[in-house]
Amino acid sequence: MVGQELQRLRLQSSKWSNNSCYIDAALALWEWAQRWLHHFWGEPAPGAPALPVPANHRLANGVVVNWQPLTQFWSTRRRLYLSDVLLDAAALKAAVQQLMELRDAVRRAYEQERSAKLAARSALEAEVSTQMLTMGAAATAFEWLCKSAGTHFLRTAVFKRCTRCGYFVQQGKMQLDPPSILEAVSGMSPAMEIMLAELQAAQGDPFAAFQAKLSAGRSPTNPGQAACLHASSSRIRISSTSAGETGSLIALQLPDSPPDALQYRLCAGDDQVLTTANVTASYRLVGVIMYQKDVHFVTDVRTPCGEGWLRFDGMIANGVGRPTEPPVGRVTHGAGRYFPYLCVYALVPSPPVDVEMTRE
Questions:
Q1: Which pLDDT score, from 0 to 100, does residue 218 have?
Q2: Distance between CA 352 and CA 246 in Å, rounded?
Q3: What's the CA gap between 236 and 323, in Å, rounded?
Q4: pLDDT tens digit string along 161-183?
Q5: pLDDT score at 155
Q6: Diameter of the chain by CA atoms?
Q7: Is residue 230's pLDDT more than 90?
Q8: Which domain holds residue 176?
Q9: How many CA atoms lie less than 13 Å away from 207 in the CB half-sphere?
Q10: Is residue 178 domain-resident?
């Protein structure tokens, strides 16, 4: 009994309130992605999150956006996750309340960022107050949590290149030298969008769809022919791997309104091999946000200590993560039907770490 109670304490997260499921789901995915980074690569500093958090800053209208609660949320969850001592009822209630307050503070910072274009401070605060009671998009929230951690993610950008002469097309001009890859991807979102047609072509496998996205375009037929009018230019997607970088994480955002006929293949039991011209690396699915359209988000995560998969749903079990089956595709949860919405994969070191050895 003590062992079960201690396990529940270690998996205690924030409870749902005021349509918070989108930020709860994003926080759970953000937290457990970092546990995998710590597991594979170690902590950057004792107790510190692996992913840098967004910096506090002042908006043009004078509002100060405070992201410090995100670090505090990590520290509070880490303390519970590593706890070897049970809390009494009052202390547990206080811990849950602290997590909820920190979650709400993170949510406020995120909504302030989204409303930053509002010139009047009063208008921004009114909008934020409304959004603090409104369901949002978990994928967008996750992107903001990772805004300062772009270099930890494999990112892509798209260039236009003439299929006849090989020149690159930028702002209507042609140049022989390719644009800077790292400069191009630096402003891209950590989460890369997989379109419905791409997912369907890959038989519902998000990672396979992403691999296909990185396939090279057609080779030019007459390289170096400067007189070409680039009438047959094609879009070429280039990733940070082209510059020799391998992202520690890959985040793939899937369609949020898939047809009922779409079948998914998440391949949670197998490491996925990414192959590009410059890099061959293995990635492991470590977390998935599941979505019931316009209703609710939950997050399934793989534990790095060999315990299997957990589902975090702030509306169930007081916010405690509960064991679940490895995600394959659509799932029934409660009275609803959910589909995969955002997948995160972690780079597997070579040789891989034995996941049975350590909890953190």
A1: 46
A2: 16
A3: 42
A4: 676 677 776 666 666 666 666 56
A5: 79
A6: 78
A7: no
A8: 2-347
A9: 25
A10: yes
Of the candidates 330, 307, 164, the residue with the CA atom closest to the CA atom of residue 254? 330
pLDDT at 63 over 80: yes
- Tell me, yes or no, whether 38 lies in a domain: yes
Per residue, the 3-state secondary structure of the chain, as one string, reads CHHHHHHHHHCECCCCCCCCHHHHHHHHHHHHHHHHHHHHHCCCCCCCCCCCCCCCEECCCCCEECCHHHHHHHHHHHHHHCCCCCCCHHHHHHHHHHHHHHHHHHHHHHHHHHCCCCCCHHHHHHHHHHHCCCCCCHHHHHHHHCHHHHHHECCEEEEEEECCCCCEEECCEEECCCCCHHHHHHCCCCEEECCHHHHHHCCCCHHHHHHHHCCCCCCCCCCCCCCCCCCCEEEEEEEHHHHCCCCCEEEEECCCCCCCCCCCCCCCCCCEEEECCCCEEEEEEEEEEEEECCCEEEEEEECCCCCCEEEECCCCHHHECEEECCCCCCEEECCEEEEEEEEEEEECCCCCCCCCCCCC
CB 163 within 8 A of CB 170: no
Does residue 98 sit within a domain? yes
Q: What is the domain-level CATH number for residue 274?
A: 3.90.70
- Greater model confidence, 1 or 97: 97
AA identity, residue 198: E
Task: Please list, in sequence order, all residues whose beta carbon lies within 8 angstroms of the beta carbon of residue 303, skipping any fewer than 6 positions away.
Answer: 32, 35, 309, 310
Encoded amino acid at 73, one letter: F
Structural contact between residues 29 and 112, judged by C-beta atoms closer than 8 angstroms: no
Residue 193 lies in a domain: yes
- Alpha-carbon gap, residue 48 to 193, rounded angstroms: 29
Report CA-CA distances (Å) from 190 to 187, 212, 248.
9, 18, 11
Q: What's the per-residue H, E or C state across 319-348?
A: HECEEECCCCCCEEECCEEEEEEEEEEEEC
Structure tokens at 154: 């494999």
Q: How many domains does the chain have?
A: 1
CA count, 13 A, side-chain hemisphere, 284: 21
Instruction: In whole angstroms, give the CA distance from residue 186 to residue 312.
Output: 31
- Say which amino acid occupies 124: L
- Burial, 182: exposed, middle or buried (Cβ in 10 Å; 0-12, 13-18, 19+)? middle
